[in-house]
């Protein structure tokens, strides 16, 4: 239990630092700019992770297109499906065009259009650029149930003693008990990363994000995990984008 | 040997020749001795070679998922007791010792047995489980302290047997329960500790008893001889075999200690036949007859097992309970006679019932379809010899409680529908999985539960009919600029000319056209015309690609008929396809195995949870919404005659041409089930998807009592108020307005609020409505 807080606190502290001190990066506020929908379906992707670089798409941040998903593609992924926010009129009712116009809170929502799989409803989202006040640590930890917390603790011990298979096994046990608890998937993503399976690590973090609405700290950690996973897969551009998302989410 | 004896007969012959004869005899007996010595050396080598090192090959054991206990867990007391019974927990007034349970109202105390799992040892411990409704409300340990999570030991559901089908659970002599060794020795070989392998005393006694009673009542074989006979020799009855047996017994006693011989006997003894499987050793016998580990057996159970050694099939307690009871009590009497147990103890034991597990109970059932799945997955990683000889422990995701519920749902529904003509010839298959983990929890491969044969769940590839439709709608809904759930589509007759020149004219099941409808209605009511039209618009190849992304690689030709389910899949493939929809667009390969341990409990291999996001969660959310409408207002709506309306479910019916295949596939939050009914000869059945498979599915869901479906709304999805008649934007304040989900940006613009009685918007709507009609 106690061991748990140390990395968590450290991570949060670091993230704080990142958020407030943009090291040569564009300030978070501008990060979203107009991102299209990012819904990109690639055609023949050999493996789970996004192809490197944003070279496929002219527009902004294709890599974070969480929405879209990874279909095997032969490398050049032309967007097949359309973006969530489309421009053309849609039967029966006309549809508004720009993403911004439809957003009640454009500033806050902007980043989510980048990767629509990220989350946190607009209502709970503080304006970007202003670090969310943080009481320190993963507050969500305290909400975990007894069994899940117990198994996460066991997994943590196994992981720190180098028993990654045992840790995975304990975490999957926790997952069966609480399949929708994003922290379980988050820990599993981290163990996979330690085991060298960066592709699965990213997938698990993505799955966790779909359950992490309203938990910005955890979202930031998940994006950081995705960043690390992409780094390991040689996708530094994608990693940078994920890191940016991590900052936005704090 | 016979020769030496012969040589002694011509002793009193005339002396002239006597010397020569004696010389010959001496030579012959010398040769005989050499031959015997040689034979003894050979036997000695055989004895030592076979008896040292690994004496038996052990088939892999397959275990069900361990039942997890934690506060807040959804588990009824009845299901818990079913599991405890299957695991052979004794009901006692207060739970004492491993494998004991005591029930007191809503509280159940158990003493778990402990078990070595992949990631660690689960200790044997006292646990007090308190139930409230169908939930675990409290979990406490021996000192009343709160326990976070406890695992029961897993139920063994089968093994992977070699050709000779010998099965056993190895035991060590220091693990046996009190009375076992004494009872065995008292019954089979009371001079065991004093003889040297063969016991002239026992033989004499046997002869005396048998001649005085005029029947073969007692054998003179020692335990050592019995072991030698079973372990080294064939079942042939001849003097030479008997002599070989005696020699080997003596040799065995020379080389090994009594305890070692006794331990080997405990593991070798044949105690029964289970179909083609031979049950060897008291370890397995204890599981086979009592569903309990050997260590936990009480005197009356021990006496039964020991008594059965004399004639395993003659004294089979399941087939001949009275004979077995008599024999058991006779053994118990022997114990008093020989001072092993007191009269009181024996009297108490005699009052006990036989206590063997009931036929048809969970402990006495076999699950061939699931074991077949496990074997197939294992064969990808292991050689046959590894599986049949190394004693591997295979941990699976099999849920015996769900399996029994599935089997009961299947048989009850067939009974209910048996009046329909042709229903008798209908076969069935069923797959039950956890959509969130991709684990297979139950599998039925045949209408006759427990029947090992054609595994239809895996191997019956049949046209899926309308089960294909969600993939058509998913392909469309991935293009929100073109399609939303409320897009108007035409359900009108049309025809297309295929590449081969054939004209394709789809028809609705009711042979009627339904005019202009909302897109989702085509799925909810399984309309062929609008679905086929939509599928042609998005492109047949794209629909087939969608199916691939859902997890099933099909080699269907891109013909329009594929849009209505002319292509075939197995029930397992269907489960995989629907699992991706149920799991928010993340595909998980279906898994039946979690991990493999060696016979010694060392971790060997894990089959980890793996996922792959293949769809935008937004598009999946919309398809789930339409599939919920299948259940609320469409072809699946009969479920709510049986299930509570608070239970949100999503699913799809499927019926192939002429009702040859009746399908239903659907899911809740935590449970996905696919049911197929059809004939092996592909003949017509009296069932559609709704009247056949859905009935089984509904019955199963009622028993399984799953959690309502509740996919978190992805952030690219918005809920918009619309007028149900026009599909135009409306407002929450307007009468009749309904909420529909849309991918953000594709929703109709919000309508004006309807305040008070004045409602200008409504008149507009009415006008639009009139215009639409």
Automatic annotation (TrEMBL), chain A:
InterPro entries: TPR-like_helical_dom_sf. Residues 23-62, 119-142 are annotated as: Disordered. It comes from the Bacteria. Residues 49-62, 119-137 have a biased composition (Polar residues). This is Tetratricopeptide repeat protein.
